[in-house]
Amino acid sequence: MQFHVIPIYNHNVENLDFIIRIKTIQRNSSIYCIIDMSKDESSIIYLKYKNLSDMLKVILFSSQSALGLTPMLYHITHKAKEILFIETGALGGALVHYIVEKEKPKEKFIELKQLTGEYNFVEKIGTDTHSIYIPILELDTTSIEFPV
Question: Quick one: 7 and 31 in the same domain?
Answer without folding.
Answer: yes
